[in-house]
C-alpha cells in the first residue's frame, strides 16, 4: 500500500492489490443475532459463521492469500520425509532470518508447547514484555511463572508513545537481580504485542534487552507471530531505521535472538508454524519433541501445500507495499472512531482496532466483564464478531481467585487483505450507534467456566434483560433495516 495523496485532500488507504476470489456474506436481522449470541453462550468464539457478517474475531489463519501463494500450493512436493517443499521453506527462513535450523510445528502454540516442555521447570520465571494466552498457559502448565515487564506506557490506552511493546530495561535488571539468572530459562519478547493492542517494540529496545540477556547468559526467544506489523512500525516510527529495507530490519532483529518462533497463521498469510534457530546444542534439546507432538521433522503437522504457501508468504512479508495494508486500514478505522469520540487504543497498532471497554462501558463492573459484554453488544449492533481481550481471557489462579485484567479491550481484527473500505465504514457506523446507546448495555456472568483457556469455550449469560432492550432500541432507530 503506497503513500498516495488525493486531489480531494481525503486521506484513505489505497489497496495495491485487486480481489479475484470472493465469498458471499449474509447479514441476518437483529432478532436472529440475539438468538445466535444466546445460543453461543455470549461467547463470540461459539458463534456460527452463517450468523456473522463481518468476522473480526482474529487475524489467525484467515488472511487472504495471494495468487502466487495459491500457485505454489499446486506444485508442492508431497512426501512424509525429505520433501523439496520443506527444503524450500527451510531455505527461505534461513535467507530471511539467518537461521539455518527450522523445526516445523502445526501452529504457534505447538512451538510454545515444545519450548515450554524443553526449558521451563517448576519454579522458573519467564520475563516478557507482555503475556499472550497460549504461551502463558504452556509455561504455567510446566510450573513456571510469567513476569510482565512492558513499559508503563504500554498499559496506557491513549498514549502517543510509538513503541508501547518495549520492555522496561530497569525492571528487567531488577527482576534478574531478584530471581537470579539461573531461575530464568529465557526472556520472551513478543513482536506486535497482541494483548495490549498489537503494539510494537523498537529495534533499540530489543537490542538493549538482548544485551542484558547475554551479560547474564540467559536465552532470548522472539515470538514473531505478529512480526509483520512490528516491522512496518519500526520502518515508520524508528528514526534510525527509516531508510532501511524490511529485510534489513528483519535481519537486525533476528541477529539478536537465540530462538525465533512463529505462528504462520499470522506471519506468512497461511497456516502452520515453527521454531527457527542457529545453535545445534539448543536444537538438540527441542528436536525430539517435534516427531513426538507434531510430526516428522520435514512437516511437523503441516501439509506440504501450507508449507509452500508460507514460503511465498514470508517473501511477500518482506515487501513494504504488502505489509502496510493492515496497519493503514487499522489506522483509518481507529481515526474514524477517535473523531466520533469512541474510546480506542492509540496509537493504532497492528492486528485490529481495539475498543476500550472500560471507557465505553464505565458503568459495567469489571467482575461482570465489560469487554465480553461489549463483544456481545457489537455483535447485536451489526453482526460484527470481535474478540474479548480482558478479564475473561485471563485464567483463575490455582487458589480459585480471579485476577482482573489490566485492560478490558474488544479487539476488532482486520485480517490482512480481507475487508473493503465500505465494510470498515459500516463497522464504525454500528459501533457509533452502540456508543450512543451504551447505557443500555449491562454485564455478563459465567454459567459454564472451564479451568484452562476459558475464553475459548466458556459460556456466559447477560445480567438482566439488557440485550432485549438493545434490540428494541435498534428497531426504533433503524426501522426494518438489517
Ligand atoms: C496467535 C498467536 C500465537 C499462537 O499461535 P497459534 O497459531 O494460534 O497457535 C502466539 N503468539 C502470538 C503473539 C499470537 O498472536
Associated small molecules? pyridoxal-5'-phosphate
What is the global morphology? globular
Please name the CATH architecture of the largest domain. 3-Layer(aba) Sandwich
Helix tally equals 19
Tell me the span between the first and last alpha carbons: 32 Å
Topology-level CATH name of the largest domain: Aspartate Aminotransferase, domain 2
CATH superfamily of the largest domain: Type I PLP-dependent aspartate aminotransferase-like (Major domain)
Strand content: 5-15%
Total beta strands: 14
The CATH top-level class label of the largest domain: Alpha Beta
Structure notes:
The chain has two domains: 2-59 and 322-478, Alpha-Beta Complex (Aspartate Aminotransferase, domain 1); 78-318, Type I PLP-dependent aspartate aminotransferase-like (Major domain) (Aspartate Aminotransferase, domain 2). Helix content is 40%, strand content 12%. The protein has helices spanning 30-39, 67-74, 84-97, 108-119, 133-141, 169-179, 203-216, 227-237, 246-254, 280-287, 289-294, 304-317, 320-323, 325-339, 357-360, 370-382, 421-436, 454-457, 466-478; strands at residues 54-55, 101-105, 125-128, 145-148, 186-190, 219-223, 259-263, 273-277, 352-356, 384-385, 387-389, 409-413, 444-448, 459-462. Strand 3, helix 5 and strand 4 form a beta-alpha-beta unit. Helix 6 (169-179) packs parallel to helix 7 (203-216). It starts with 29 loop residues before the first helix and ends with a helix. The mean pLDDT is 96. Bound molecules: pyridoxal-5'-phosphate. Pyridoxal-5'-phosphate (PLP) binds next to helix 4.
Amino acid at each position: 500500500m503506497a503513500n498516495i495523496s488525493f486531489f480531494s485532500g481525503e486521506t484513505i488507504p489505497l489497496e495495491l492489490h485487486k480481489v479475484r476470489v470472493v465469498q458471499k456474506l449474509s447479514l441476518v436481522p437483529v432478532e436472529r443475532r440475539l438468538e445466535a449470541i444466546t445460543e453461543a453462550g455470549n461467547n463470540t468464539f461459539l458463534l456460527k459463521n452463517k450468523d456473522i457478517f463481518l468476522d473480526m474475531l482474529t487475524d489467525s489463519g484467515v488472511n487472504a492469500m495471494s495468487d502466487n501463494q495459491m500457485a505454489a500450493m499446486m506444485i508442492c512436493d508431497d512426501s512424509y520425509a525429505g520433501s523439496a517443499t520443506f527444503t524450500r521453506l527451510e531455505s527461505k527462513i534461513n535467507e530471511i532470518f539467518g537461521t539455518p535450523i527450522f523445526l516445523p510445528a502445526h501452529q504457534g502454540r505447538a512451538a510454545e508447547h515444545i519450548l515450554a516442555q524443553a526449558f521451563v521447570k517448576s519454579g522458573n520465571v519467564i520475563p516478557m514484555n507482555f503475556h499472550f494466552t497460549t504461551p502463558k498457559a504452556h509455561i504455567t502448565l510446566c510450573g513456571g511463572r510469567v513476569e510482565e515487564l512492558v513499559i508503563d506506557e504500554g498499559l496506557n490506552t491513549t498514549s502517543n508513545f510509538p513503541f508501547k511493546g518495549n520492555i522496561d530495561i530497569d525492571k528487567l535488571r531488577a527482576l534478574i537481580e531478584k530471581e537470579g539468572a539461573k531461575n530464568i530459562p529465557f526472556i520472551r519478547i513478543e513482536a506486535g504485542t497482541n494483548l495490549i493492542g498489537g503494539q510494537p517494540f523498537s529495534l533499540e529496545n530489543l537490542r538493549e534487552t538482548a544485551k542484558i540477556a547475554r551479560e547474564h547468559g540467559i536465552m532470548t526467544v522472539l515470538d514473531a507471530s505478529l512480526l509483520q506489523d512490528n516491522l512496518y512500525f519500526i520502518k515508520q516510527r524508528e528514526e534510525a531505521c527509516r531508510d532501511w529495507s524490511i529485510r534489513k530490519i528483519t535481519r537486525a532483529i533476528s541477529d539478536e535472538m537465540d530462538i525465533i518462533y512463529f505462528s504462520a497463521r499470522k506471519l506468512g498469510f497461511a497456516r502452520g508454524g515453527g521454531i527457527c534457530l542457529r545453535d545445534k546444542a539448543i536444537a538438540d534439546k527441542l528436536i525430539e519433541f517435534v516427531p513426538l507432538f507434531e510430526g516428522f521433522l520435514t512437516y511437523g503437522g503441516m501439509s506440504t501445500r501450507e508449507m509452500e504457501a508460507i514460503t511465498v508468504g514470508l517473501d511477500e512479508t518482506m515487501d513494504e507495499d504488502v505489509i502496510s495494508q493492515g496497519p493503514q486500514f487499522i489506522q483509518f478505522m481507529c481515526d474514524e472512531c477517535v473523531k466520533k469520540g469512541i474510546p480506542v487504543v492509540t496509537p493504532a497498532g497492528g492486528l485490529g482496532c481495539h475498543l476500550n471497554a472500560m471507557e465505553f462501558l464505565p458503568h459495567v463492573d469489571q467482575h461482570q466483564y465489560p469487554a465480553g459484554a461489549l463483544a456481545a453488544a457489537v455483535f447485536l449492533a451489526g453482526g460484527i464478531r470481535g474478540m474479548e481481550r480482558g478479564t475473561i481471557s485471563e485464567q483463575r489462579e490455582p487458589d480459585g481467585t480471579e485476577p482482573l485484567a489490566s485492560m478490558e479491550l474488544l479487539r476488532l481484527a482486520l485480517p490482512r487483505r480481507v475487508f473493503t473500505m465500505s465494510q470498515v465504514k459500516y463497522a464504525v457506523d454500528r459501533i457509533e450507534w452502540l456508543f450512543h446507546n451504551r447505557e443500555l448495555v449491562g454485564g455478563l456472568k459465567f454459567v459454564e467456566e472451564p479451568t484452562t483457556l476459558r475464553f475459548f469455550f466458556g459460556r456466559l449469560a447477560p445480567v438482566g434483560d439488557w440485550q432485549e432492550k438493545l434490540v428494541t432500541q435498534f428497531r426504533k432507530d433503524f426501522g426494518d433495516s438489517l
